[in-house]
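#struct-queue
[09:14] JT: dropping the first one here, sequence first, then the structure tokens:
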Amino acid sequence: MKRALASCKPTKMWIDGKCFDIRRVPERASQKNVRYEIKTNDQGKLFTSFRLPRAYCAKLSKCRRLDLKTLEGSTSTHISIPTSGNLVITGESEEKIVEARDEIHAMLGDLRDQTVALQFVSIPTLSTEIVENFTKFKDNILGDEIEGMHESIFQSPLKLHLTVVVFALMDDHEKLEATKALQDYKNMILDPLIRKAGPAKIKISGIDCMNRNLKKVDILFANATIVNENEEFNLQQLVNGLSDHFYERGLVRKYQDNVKLHMTLINTKYRKIPDSPKKKRWGKRQSVDATKIMEKYKDFYFGECDLNSIHLSLIGSVGSDGFYEPISIINAP
């Protein structure tokens, strides 16, 4: 089935317990079919309020593109942005309050887009076979003379995984919602799928890179499929469905047309300065000439692993087992 293009899908954002379609600045029309809760305060004035993570409160207060005084003047409202807690919009008419809230929601969507990814969902690929073959692959390449190659740019063998989707979850409320979404995915989608199709194995075989210029490669990865996959049950559909699930909950920054299935082998952003006590990274990325690697290892077989869990983890972290520190884990039945 043909998937919708990202350009045709609205931005969605989870705000204070609800998922909203976010119109983009500078569009002016109010959102249709959105129902904000409008109440009356003790002074008889209408208001709406919603909780925001502390980080968004601080960013809104400092945001140059959001001129609060101008927005208050154009909508005849008063907007109170706390250091943390509930943002409150007070006004004389529901229409103007909605207009002001639309504008703030749009800015929140932009702020989320600008926030560095902090968490991600992945499928670990950590069988003994895959880890051993990855180590052989790494040792072989390090034994060759390749421009830009260094041991530090290889993925840790304890962290091999398929990335599905990334997040910028700003507080415990948003992390809890993501945890609930992952558990709902297990109950509603993953478990019924596995029970129908049977236990799944993932095959990691063949390598590729994120750009076409083989002389300047920053990310080298291995391809992944489900063993004996078919139209009804295949890895691409599974990860697309998982990404869509989080998109519909308003937790991802944008809809993905098609998840790029990959197990990262090399990423030049991992590069460390040799002999640096603090193991600092280079200020500027140094790419790798992957011409010889692609010629020699294009069809390299890494192995198979069971599809037995999906993790919601912290980016850049290390858990007790050497994998990324988990926020939540679901296991296949």
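[09:21] JT: and here's the second one, same format:
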Amino acid sequence: MAYQDLLSYNNHAFRIYVTWGGFLLLKLICMSFLTVFHRIRKGAVANPEDAATVPKSEIKIDEDVERVRRAHLNDLENIPVFFFAALMYILSDPDPIVVAWLIRIYVLVRFFHTFVYAVYPIRQPARALCFGTGVMIKFFMIIWSIVCFFHF
């Protein structure tokens, strides 16, 4: 398949990438709102101007707020790498069924990672299994793409 066809809605793999990638972007945006929710609920703001606008709040560090912030930071560190790895993978013209499964699994483990980290904390290894699964998928996509594009 020609490269311009790989990045079109005629390519099932690209449609999966855009659709499920959209879910990841929405999740990333919602993490900001989850942080705000916890800040208001706990009365823990980061800046003096925020303390003036949120009743019964003060500048303080709250563990629940920090947990959500760490989960958000983890998303910011991992999701962009996934987008690039998945795009490289799609450009290698893989089997669309494999693409669909890898992308869906990655998105689901990122959602589950956030759930067990920030929403309803569960002891390890739940979070580590989610993170590890996502890392393995990214490694596979990157290595597959390198092998396909770099002819020894």
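[09:30] RK: nice, looked through the second one.
[09:31] RK: The chain has a mean pLDDT of 91.
[09:31] JT: good to know. The beta strands are 44-45, 58-59.
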